[in-house]
Amino acid sequence: MWSLTERPGHLRLTTGSVASSILDARNTLTQRTLGPTSSGTISLDVSHMQDGDVAGISAYQRTYGYIAVTMEGGTRSLVMRRAGGDGVIAFTSAPVPLRADVVYLRADVDFRDAADTASFAYSYDGSNWTRLGDTVPMRYDLAHFTGYRFALFNYATTEPGGHVDVDWFRVSDTIGLANPTHRPSEGAVHD
């Protein structure tokens, strides 16, 4: 359910089945995170999402966190979510209405001095970032796989068939959003 040819120059991720979370989404592509710090950033076109779709970037492991675009009732919103140790979503940020078809999403991971945290942000221009949600404490166990990965994903919660296009995915050792003194700019709600 991925293609490099359906839209030349882009990675297309199409929903092919219904999933309950990122843990059982089947078209998730991953890249190992790097230490002591690293950042994964994507340019994401969400103009062909369907109701119930969730697409974004994750600091991926059983205790995951992600920033994503969700589509509900014809409205696209940005959310940040994190799972507890059981893989079930334990926190969801307040949704932020999405104002464009293309959005930049970023995941920062910090392993310095055993911080082991991830934080997330979005941008409309790729330069000015707004942090969303809280900080994810990364936990390590062998229930899923060893370590954390950046994950690009798109899954359907109601009906398959929607798609997103990733123009690019960049990994860097430069972060700045994982600083615990940086306050989230958006409110939060708990599930």
UniProtKB/TrEMBL annotation:
<protein>
    <recommendedName>
        <fullName>Beta-xylosidase C-terminal Concanavalin A-like domain-containing protein</fullName>
    </recommendedName>
</protein>
<dbReference type="InterPro" id="IPR051795">
    <property type="entry name" value="Glycosyl_Hydrlase_43"/>
</dbReference>
<dbReference type="InterPro" id="IPR041542">
    <property type="entry name" value="GH43_C2"/>
</dbReference>
<dbReference type="InterPro" id="IPR013320">
    <property type="entry name" value="ConA-like_dom_sf"/>
</dbReference>
<feature type="domain" description="Beta-xylosidase C-terminal Concanavalin A-like">
    <location>
        <begin position="2"/>
        <end position="171"/>
    </location>
</feature>
<dbReference type="Pfam" id="PF17851">
    <property type="entry name" value="GH43_C2"/>
</dbReference>
